[in-house]
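Running this now, will post back.
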Amino acid sequence: MTDKDNALFTTIRQPNLRSGLADTLMAQIESGDLKPGQRLPTEQAIMAATGVSRTIVREALATLRAKGLITTHQGLGAFVSNDPNPRSFSIIPNDLQSIDEVLRVLELRMGVEYEAAGLAALRRTPEDVERMQDRLHALDKALEKGGYGAQEDYAFHRSILVATQNSYYSRLFDTFGDIMVPRQWARLDKMTAFERKRHAARMRREHHAIFAAIRDGNEAAARRAIRSHLSKSAARFEELRDATNLS
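Update: finished.
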């Protein structure tokens, strides 16, 4: 590996090496430092330069492939795509390999859903309210059964976006699917029965507050409720990260 190749990896020596490696390579591709058609260093060379495992290297390369930034050829290695500039933004499972990445997604959601909740409160129709009520009931049932309720949670939040009467909001969420609700990090399996019950009650309380504000047409309250819910979710993830050192 050349000195230039080594320079590609000087920014990834951080706790979250998996996403750091993918982000570094992505930045090099998008900046043009790694040019269309250029061959990437071998897995072994990347491992030697970074000190990460082969598994992490392969997961980082899989992320780049999923985004259309690189292509691989059997026996030849990985190459920067001839047209590496992504035409659409996406979040894929490999992007959420750490709590820090989950927190970044929550920041994105807060920006989108804060505005959407306000618009939904102003524009919701009786059909929208009924749809949100149904989705909320399904989420309640999933939580009562002790599950994560990721799909039901996603469906409820999507129903808010639909109620904006602006299809771009719901289409944005459809791009990501229920990965926007990364409940796998909630660690319900590590909770006691009492903790799971308290967690479910808290989730129900926060979601019902959002629904009530939108149903009642209270724009300011809807914005406050969604911001409070996502802020509290972020705080819970930060607490988990700090307690378990899962960055």
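Residues 11-15 have pLDDT under 50 and may be disordered. More later if anyone needs it.
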